[in-house]
Amino acid sequence: MAIQFDSTNRVFHLTTKHTSYLFSVFDHNYLYTAYYGRKLRGTPDLSRLWQKYPSGFSPNYEGAPDVNYALDIIPTEYPAYGGGDFRCPAVGVQFENGSRIIDPQYVSHTITDGSEELEGLPSLSGGDQTLEVLLRDEPTGLAIVLKYIVFEDIDVITRSARIINKTGAPVTVTEALSMSMDLPIADYDMIGLYGAHIRERQIDRSPMRHGTQSVGSRRGTSSHHHNPFMAFAEKTATEEQGSVYGISLIYSGNWIGRAEVDPFGGARVQMGIHPAGFAWRLADGETFVTPEAVMTYSAEGLGQMSRNFHNAYRYHLGHTKRRNVRRPIVINNWEATYFDFDEEKLLGIIESCKGLGIDTFVLDDGWFGHRDTDNSSLGDWFVHTGKLPHGLTPLIEKCEEQGMTFGLWFEPEMISEDSELYRAHPDWALKQDGRPFCRGRQQLILDLSREDVLEYLEKTVGGVLKNNRISYVKWDMNRHFTEAYSAALPPERQGEVFHRFVLNLYRFMAYLTENFPDVVFEGCSGGGGRFDPGILYYQPQIWTSDDSDAIERLKIQYGTSMVYPPQSMTAHVSASPNHQMNRVTPYNTRALVAMSASFGYEFNPLQLTDEERLAIKTQTERYRKVSDMVLKGDFYRLQNPFETNACAWMFVLPDKSKACAVYVRQLNLPADPVTVLKFRGLDPEATYHIEELDADFGGDELMYAGVALPHLWDFEATCFTLTKK
Ligand code: GLA
Is 0.85 topped by the overall pTM? Predict the structure, then answer.
């Protein structure tokens, strides 16, 4: 049984293959967070670890056994503000009478086999067991259900909450986090993924300090700037050893992740929807559901934490049938043409892909309305006849003649002021009449919190997919939210705009994936600005960054791999000098970095030399050979590009029969001592043949002694393909 309840001591014990999570029903039916870590036998009552002491200025709740009992110092599963806990709350509600005081206490629980996905929100499926714990604020009747799902094999536990209004009057939910957990000792480093446009998911690792430290987004999307993920690692934890807690949120809108280190050395860690600007009206009888947080604990360092997340997101997230199957090798015309193309030019590009081994041509921005620059036409999802007088058909037919398929770019959540859509529906943009508003990339956000907008998008974007043979969609989102005011919502519901937008975005994506199940959807938001599990539920791969430079991509892809499996990252070989960095890098390096993900190209094939064409043919052949490892392999980070002058990683099939490793030198250094690469994850008892060296090695030798690396100049790379004999 993955979930046990000791009814004598009233202790819940959630177990996975290697971990235990325990909490108990404590004095006065408060939920006491007891333990998360390595697996424990039995169901010990760990509340006995609690050291009683009277804490000055920590008030005792009514009926507390003695002065030691104060909510301010008791580790609590889902804390609220207004009673005696002054630390960060997980839930906040304003009642009809203006009161914001709540005091949730345990009422009952259920344990059921299997799991159900959340209503209206993307979440994991295929869990082993589910625990639901009902809490109630007795004076008002407000109910809260805490939901825990255990995924035994992959060491994952998910959490979410439902707030149910049973008060007999409307209430406003002002804060509703997905999880809260009190760790007894805050002696950890907090790890986050911060960044910016063209520099996403850099790794930040800083010691926790007293007070609240937080990451998050108030930008309307999960953002380039912080990713909805936090880890807490023992100070000595490395890739391979040490305790690490990881938390990831399946959500694509405003979010917060925070840790509050209290004066007594404990830490409260929390994640969920960002409370800034959030206020959700709940009529009597209605329920608010929080997004799902995915938690994992690894006693074997960051590498195992990441592999647990990868398994969760590869095997338990989403319903698209394109997950875990080889994705097409794509060529995208953005960096080849930008907006400057017409039918003839595109036909030439498609024609020149012949014989390269590319599966799909994707037509990027500029094919619709009268879009010749980025100042118009978003919302007008019909063909730009000035550029494409015969529509998309000649392009599609040209692709098909060559055994390729056709893909198309959309940016459905946007509206340009210069568009037919805006002229017909100026109130469909998020903004407030009588107040100046910001433009981002000269565009506005379409108010997807509105039902009529959702219908319009289903009809227009769906119509293009229905009427054309399109096998691939790149879905972009190129600005963040400002003046988030909806003309369609009443005053008391304006605090719902951000979350309603996300809910309708998910409905729209569900509509498209259900109606066009064979289409591969690729997410994008100015590159990797919405790289989160909420999007991955519907769109199995995401354009990782608008920075396509192979050397910058080392850090971006390495950081992204903390949480997300390499198959979820789109990576393309682009031109050299690179358009974002002006850096010149070898073809081989660009290819090996891009092949460590969902692979493709982003340049003008008409400009290739014969030698380069041959190189591309070899690359696409190689990718077909290794793509199974990228999809299904366990991922090991070998060398950290943030800390060393190189970057290396490898993929090992779960049965350890095959592996491949990539090593990239950043700058060449005189007398650089690092000349050996040690592999991970192999079978130490087995013998492996390395294709590139045409030699056999013991798995133990490869992992513990390593292989000698060839001399590599600036930005050069090498790879090793291993087969078990
Ligand atoms: C964003 C994307 C790019 C490209 C452009 C088109 O920046 O990330 O890949 O599609 O938009 O405008």
Answer: yes
| CATH numbers and ranges of domains, the chain | 3-315 (2.70.98.60), 330-543 (3.20.20.70), 639-724 (2.60.40.1180)
Q: Is the pLDDT of residue 268 over 70?
A: yes
Q: Tell me how far the alpha carbon of residue 542 lies from the centroid of ligand 1, in angstroms.
A: 12
Q: How far is the CA of 348 from the centre of ligand 1 (A)?
A: 22
- For residue 430, give the nearest of 525, 358, 504, 531 by alpha carbon: 504
Q: What is the largest CA-CA distance in the chain?
A: 84
**CB of residue 365 inside a 6 A radius of ligand 1:** yes
8-state DSSP, 226: B
State the distance from the centre of ligand 1 to the C-alpha of 555, rounded, in angstroms. Answer: 20
Shortest CA distance to 30 belongs to which of 156, 128, 150, 133? 133
Q: How far is CA 642 from CA 201, 227, 526, in A?
A: 12, 18, 23
Q: Is the dihedral of CA 119, 124, 130, 132 positive or negative?
A: negative
> For residue 612, what pLDDT is reported?
95
Residue 325: how many other CB atoms lie within 10 Å: 12
Contact 275, 92 (CB under 8 A): yes
**Contact between 295 and 156 (Cβ < 8 Å):** yes
Q: How far apart are CA 247 and CA 636, in angstroms?
A: 19
DSSP output for 389-452: TT-SHHHHHHHHHTT-EEEEEE-TTEE-SBSHHHHH-GGGBS--TTS----BTTBEEB-TTSHH
> Crossing angle of helices 587-594/550-560, nearest 10°?
20
CA distances from 359 to 350, 464, 474, 545, 700 (A): 11, 21, 15, 22, 39
Q: Looking at 72, 85, 137, 476, which residue is catalytic?
A: 476
Q: Is 476 one of the annotated active-site residues of the chain?
A: yes
Question: Residue 650 has which token pair?
Answer: 């490898």
Tokens encoding 312: 């969760």
Q: What residue owns the CA closest to ligand 1's atom 2?
A: 526
As a residue count, the chain comes to: 725
- Quick check: CB of 527 below 6 Å from ligand 1? yes
The pLDDT of residue 658? 98
Please write down the HEC assignment for all residues of 567-600.
Answer: HHEEEEEECCCCCCCCCCCCHHHHHHHHCCCEEE
**Inter-residue contact 254 to 220 (CB < 8 Å):** yes
| Cβ-count burial 193-223 (b if 16+ within 10 Å, e if not) | bbbebbbbbbbeeeebeeeebbbbbbbbbbb
Tokens of 275: 């409370």
Scored b (16 or more CB within 10 A) or e, 8-38 reads eebbbbbbbebbbbbbbbbeeebbbbbbbee
Contact (CB, 8 A) for 501 and 253:
yes
State the amino acid at position 373 in one-letter form.
T
Can you tell me whether residue 178 is helix, strand or coil? strand
Ligand 1 atom 11: residue of nearest CA: 526
User: Tell me, what's the pLDDT at 323?
Assistant: 82
Query: What's the average model confidence in pLDDT over 58-69?
Result: 94
Quick check: 320 pLDDT over 70? no
Mean pLDDT of 512-531: 97
Is 532 catalytic? The answer is: no
